[in-house]
Design a protein that fits this description.
The structure holds two protein chains of two kinds. Chain A is built from 13 helices and no strands. By secondary structure, chain A is mostly helical. In chain A, helix 5 packs antiparallel against helix 6 and helix 5 runs parallel beside helix 12. Chain B is built from three helices and no strands. The interface between A and B is large, with 39 and 38 residues.
Chain lengths: 290, 71
């Protein structure tokens, strides 16, 4: 699993989506796969299987889960920027979690084969603290740093007050307006709330890293598949060709499923959906992703 | 700031962000608290809310002015 990378990605995605996606929805989308399950993962008999596998709650780390969430949001709120935000945030989380050894089932239920590049070990079997220590002793910590640098060098303007005022709020005036009224927060308070996700990412990354080094004194092993002191926990013993084949079949089936859903009801939901007044969309996929 | 559905985005930006030193000080405090009380501080609720609580809510609760706005 990734830790702070999920917070930094939000801003990067927001920069590319502009006004077409709500930042709060992107943040909720990136939290969604772990939101109701993470607390139970550390108590599970086989945490990796429970977290990412099937049987288990691994379906939360699949594209269909994001599609389901986005569809429900579109059907109930009619907000396109929220639906797109949920979809993009959840899919980003799925893609990011491919990096650890447990992997994800992106095309569940059409394929239950875990897809992983095994960059660092999924270490939930060590408990929450052990998991954090292992993550920040492996390439996982470097992955977080990579996303922080991506944010600093390519999307730092998203953290500025002008961007918040001219893009973030106009993309989602209803939610920010609700927070403004409900929490009695003026613009400065809302800006700090918005910047708080980045602050949290930076803070947790640094604090866990320091604890891993100075409190737990774990060896720092930023090598592929590290850290070495954690046992391997791959969920599948299938070879690369088998994984590619099963995943490809699952991917094609998922694409067909998307087309069928679009024709049956998604298009109707999308067309009756609303955009905030200052948002303009093109046609086709550009209306959603560009 | 545009907060109503029908309002247009405002392009002039008056000072709303606290000075950089306030962010740095808050981060240092968060790191110390996170290091000492990790289960309480380093979580999804306290973490994202810490900045607004430290730089906006707390100063007002204490009846003092918050950090001076910077351009």
């Amino acid at each position: 699993m990734s830790w702070a990378a999920h917070e930094f990605e939000n801003y990067f995605l927001q920069k590319h989506m502009g006004m077409k996606a709500s930042f709060l929805a992107i943040a909720l989308g990136t939290f969604a796969p772990d939101l109701f399950t993470k607390a139970f993962v550390y108590a599970a008999k086989d945490p990796a299987q429970f977290h990412r596998g099937w049987p288990g709650v691994g379906f939360t780390h699949s594209f269909i889960f994001g599609l389901l969430g986005a569809t429900l949001v579109l059907a109930t709120t009619r907000s396109r920027s929220w639906a797109v935000g949920i979809l993009v945030g959840q899919w980003a989380h799925v893609l990011t979690d491919i990096c650890d050894t447990a992997g994800v089932m992106p095309f569940f239920p059409f394929s239950t084969e875990p897809v992983t590049i095994g960059m660092w070990k999924h270490a939930a079997s060590l408990g929450r603290y052990g998991d954090a220590t292992a993550y920040y002793s492996s390439l996982g910590g470097v992955w977080d740093l990579f996303w922080l640098l991506m944010l600093v060098f390519f999307a730092s303007r998203t953290l500025r007050p002008a961007y918040f005022r001219n893009v973030i709020v106009p993309a989602d005036p209803r939610a920010w307006g609700w927070l403004h009224r409900r929490l009695h927060l003026p613009e400065q308070g809302l800006l700090l709330l918005y910047q708080g996700f980045c602050f949290y990412g930076l803070g947790r990354m640094t604090a866990w890293f320091l604890r891993a080094r100075f409190d737990d004194k774990a060896p720092f092993q930023p090598v592929w598949g590290g850290p070495r002191y954690v046992q391997g926990n791959d969920l599948s013993d299938a070879g690369p060709l088998e994984v590619i084949l099963r995943t490809s079949v699952g991917g094609v089936a998922f694409a067909l499923f998307l087309v069928v859903c679009w024709r049956l009801f998604l298009k109707r939901l999308w067309l009756r959906g609303d955009d905030p007044p200052s948002v303009t969309r093109g046609r086709g996929l550009a209306a959603i992703f560009h | 700031m545009s907060l109503g559905p029908g309002e247009e985005a405002q392009h002039e930006v008056p000072a709303v962000a606290p000075p950089l030193v306030a962010y740095v000080a808050t981060l240092v405090v968060y790191l110390v608290l996170g290091y000492l009380f990790r289960s309480v501080v380093l979580n999804w609720i306290i973490g994202p809310a810490f900045l607004v609580c430290s730089l906006y809510v707390l100063p007002r609760l204490l009846g003092r002015r918050g950090p001076k706005a910077a351009g």
